[in-house]
Each structure stands twice: as structure tokens, then as C-alpha cells.
Automatic annotation (TrEMBL):
Family: Belongs to the IspG family.
GO aspect biological process, one term: isopentenyl diphosphate biosynthetic process, methylerythritol 4-phosphate pathway
Coiled-coil annotated spans: none
SUPFAM superfamilies per UniProt: Nitrite and sulphite reductase 4Fe-4S domain-like (SSF56014)
InterPro entries: Dihydropteroate_synth-like_sf, IspG_bac, IspG_bac-typ, IspG_C, IspG_TIM, NO2/SO3_Rdtase_4Fe4S_sf
Enzyme type, top EC level: oxidoreductase
Keywords, ordered alphabetically: 4Fe-4S, Iron, Iron-sulfur, Isoprene biosynthesis, Metal-binding, Oxidoreductase
Name this polypeptide is given: 4-hydroxy-3-methylbut-2-en-1-yl diphosphate synthase (flavodoxin)
Taxonomy, superkingdom: Bacteria
Signal peptide location: none
Record flagged with keyword Calcium: no
Domain IspG TIM-barrel: 9-279
Gene3D superfamilies per record: Dihydropteroate synthase-like (3.20.20.20), Sulfite Reductase Hemoprotein, domain 1 (3.30.413.10)
Length: 421
């Protein structure tokens, strides 16, 4: 396995979750419920947590929302969910923290956007109050700068200074520099106000892939704070998934990024958990972490006119993911299991042998039998209409034998060794 070089950062503790340096890259998500509806918000946090989100952010935008945060925390505790909650504050955060101290205590981290705190001395006072509150209650803070809500006074100051140069930079470059300066200056203000460096995480989110890569490379080279990655508005469906994967994979491969969030716009009525699945699959397909057994499956061609292998691949992937809530506790290490579902004789036997467990289904015109390979050896040949159920039973048997108590593969999931830089 290759060694991935990670940025050396301060480590930030968010309840039981450690962020930074050699800690695993953390998956984060955010609710889209009305936080004033404590029941709906708690249920969505639990759903996101069950899907694998290790930190969940909630909107705290009104007195009604702030008043319900402690109830949401209690509801989660009652459900056995200890996932840390992050309060997302804009415009009125200092007032809500002041008026609702139970909200301030119940959150595990505050997200503060310097561009939305306020202007001038009044803005400085608001920022100072939020930072001092975090320090008082020993809470972590993410200083999150966004392209769409950059501090305009800072942007103007830097634009004016740029225009005075003999060779001014392009306005886009100045804006990207302003993002970084806003984050770094705000972090220094927080430290000066008494918040320890090991309580601070930074982010500089934009919506363009190339801009995000450039900004985070620069930011990462100029500080030792952990960084939260994500396109600020990734988009919907395949566009959002592709854009997020393209940007984050480049940065993660360079050792940049300590928490990630995939900001997908969900289809109407679609579960919010899709963004968690995508985040996990980015990390797992890169070999950085293991979350759930993955299924290798061929795309199909003229040799596979039957839909049997497609249906089986879909059913197996759904089955494995649905089982993880239980398997994660019963079978440590099962998240690194690799299953192959192949559609014909061309690559089927070879891919099946390389997987922990694999099945090679018959293609068009092939003998209607399906050999099953376990740890590279042909174990049994399935045929008939009950192949899917029989193969699932073989998978379950394999998991119990290999990842159960005393099993030869009972261990933590595979990760790439990390070397700090």
C-alpha cells in the first residue's frame, strides 16, 4: 500500500471525534429540516448518523431554532445517538448564543462565517462574543469563509491595494486571496480572544472545482489548522457528485483536508443521506477509509443482454449497506470486504477470484450456471431461479466465519498509512 502524506495540523477534539493530522478524514453532513421542529431535526440527524455521518450541522437562525437545540440533543441521546452537533450561525449568532445558553452548551461546535457576522466595530464585537462563548464552554469553532458571502470591506481593501500596484493581479486572483486572508485573520483574532488553536478548523468554500483546489492548496501551505473541504454549492445529481469528487480527490491525494462534506442538492423527496454515501465512497474508493463492503460489477455489453447480473449487483450493494448498521458492531473489519458480481465469462472468473467473494453469471449464449469463488477458489456453482438468495446466503456465511469472534479477518478496516508533513 502507498503512503499518503498528510498535512501536519493541530488536532481538534469535537466530543469523541478527532480531526486533523493522522486522524481519519471525517465525514460531515447537514440537516435541511426546520430546526425549530425538534422531532424532525433529531430524526434526520439520526438518519444521517446511521448512514455514516460522523458530525452533523444544523441551522441555528432564529430564537425558535435556538430554543430547540438542547431538546434535539436530548432526543438524540435518548435514541443512543452521540453524533456531535454543529450550530450553523449567520447574522445573529451572538444574540442567539447570549439569549439561549442551553443552545451554546448543547452544541459541540460553532460554525461562524466572518462575512456574515457584521461590519466594522459592531461586527468585531459580535465575532468576539461568539468566540468567547466557545472558549467559555470549551467548544470547537469552524471559521467558514464562503465565496458568496465574503467580507466586502476586506475585499474592497484588497482590491484597492491591488489597483495601486504597478502590475495588478486579475480580480479573480485577488478575490481568492481575500478568502484565504479572511480565514487566517479571523483565526488569529479568535486566538487573540482566548480560543486555543486546537479548537479551530478553517474552510474557504467556492463553487468552482479549479478555484477550490487552488484556494485550499494555498491555505494549507500557510497554516496548521485542520481544513474542512467541500464545494459550497456542488449541485444536483451526477453534476454535484462529479464536481465534488473531482475537487476533493485531488486535494485528499495531496494530503489536504481533514473533514469533508458533499453539498448535494437532493431531488424532491430524496433522502438527505445521499451526500453521506458519496463522501464515504470518495474516501473508500481512494483507499483512505473503509465504511461498507463494495461491489465490483461490470458495466454490461452485448454479451450480457440479460439484466440478471445488474439486478444482483444492485441487490447485493443494497443488502451490504443495509446490514452495516448491525455488522459494524458484530463483525469488525467487514467494511473492507470486497464482492464481485460479473456478467459473463470474459472477465467474470478473473474478477471473482480477485475479490473476497465473487460470482460470475452467464452471459448471452453461455451455459446457464454461475460459479462462485471464495478467497480465489471456486467454491460452488449456482443455477436456477434462486441464485440471488443462495449467493446472499454464501455472503452472510462468509462474513460470520471470517469477521465473527475469532475469525481470521476480524480487524479494523483497511486504511492507507499516513505520514505527516
Amino acid at each position: 500500500m502507498q503512503t499518503l502524506q498528510r498535512r501536519q495540523t493541530h488536532q481538534v477534539q469535537i466530543d469523541h471525534v478527532t480531526v486533523g493530522s493522522d486522524a481519519p478524514v471525517v465525514v460531515q453532513s447537514m440537516t435541511n429540516t426546520d430546526t425549530a421542529d425538534a422531532e424532525a431535526t433529531a430524526l434526520q440527524v439520526k438518519e444521517l448518523s446511521d448512514a455514516g455521518s460522523e458530525i452533523v450541522r444544523i441551522t441555528v437562525n432564529s430564537p425558535e431554532a435556538a430554543a430547540k437545540v438542547s431538546e434535539i440533543r436530548q432526543r438524540l441521546n435518548d435514541m443512543g445517538c452521540n453524533t456531535p452537533l454543529v450550530g450553523d450561525f449567520h447574522f445573529n449568532g451572538e444574540r442567539l448564543l447570549q439569549e439561549f445558553p442551553e443552545c451554546a452548551k448543547s452544541l459541540s461546535k460553532y460554525r461562524i462565517n466572518p462575512g456574515n457576522v457584521g461590519k466594522g466595530a459592531k461586527g468585531d464585537e459580535k465575532f468576539a462574543y461568539m468566540i468567547r462563548t466557545a472558549a467559555e464552554y470549551d467548544k470547537a469553532v469552524r471559521i467558514g469563509v464562503n465565496w458568496g458571502s465574503l467580507d466586502q470591506s476586506l475585499a474592497k481593501r484588497m482590491m484597492d491595494a491591488n489597483l495601486a500596484l504597478a502590475q495588478p493581479k486579475a480580480p479573480e486572483e485577488v478575490m481568492k486571496e481575500a478568502l484565504i486572508v479572511s480565514a487566517l485573520e479571523s483565526a488569529q483574532k479568535a486566538v487573540d480572544l482566548g480560543l486555543p488553536e486546537d479548537k479551530i478548523i478553517l474552510s474557504c468554500k467556492v463553487s468552482s472545482v479549479q478555484d477550490l483546489i487552488q484556494v485550499y492548496r494555498d491555505l494549507g501551505s500557510r497554516c496548521h489548522y485542520p481544513l474542512h473541504l467541500g464545494l459550497t454549492e456542488a449541485g444536483m445529481g451526477s453534476k454535484g457528485i462529479v464536481a465534488s469528487t473531482a475537487a476533493l480527490s485531488v486535494l485528499l491525494q495531496e494530503g489536504i483536508g481533514d473533514t469533508i462534506r458533499i453539498s448535494l442538492t437532493p431531488e424532491p423527496g430524496e433522502s438527505r443521506t445521499q451526500e453521506v454515501v458519496v463522501a464515504q465512497e470518495i474516501l473508500q474508493t481512494m483507499g483512505l477509509r473503509s465504511f461498507t463492503p463494495l461491489v465490483t460489477a461490470c458495466p454490461g455489453c452485448g454479451r450480457t443482454t440479460s439484466t440478471v447480473f445488474q439486478e444482483l449487483a444492485r441487490d447485493i450493494q443494497s443488502y451490504l449497506r443495509s446490514q452495516m448498521a448491525v455488522w459494524r458492531l458484530q463483525y469488525p473489519g467487514v467494511e473492507s470486504l470486497n464482492v464481485a458480481v460479473m456478467g459473463c465469462v470474459v472477465n467474470g472468473p478473473g474478477e471473482s477470484k480477485l475479490a473476497d467473494i465473487g460470482i460470475s453469471l452467464p452471459g448471452t449464449g453461455e451455459t446457464p450456471v454461475a460459479p462462485v469463488y471464495v478467497d480465489g477458489e471456486r467454491k460452488v456453482t449456482l443455477k436456477g431461479d434462486n441464485m440471488a438468495a443462495e449467493f446472499l446466503a454464501i455472503v452472510q456465511e462468509y462474513v460470520e466465519a471470517n469477521y465473527g469472534e475469532g475469525g481470521p479477518k476480524r480487524r479494523q478496516g483497511r486504511v492507507i498509512p499516513i505520514r505527516n508533513i
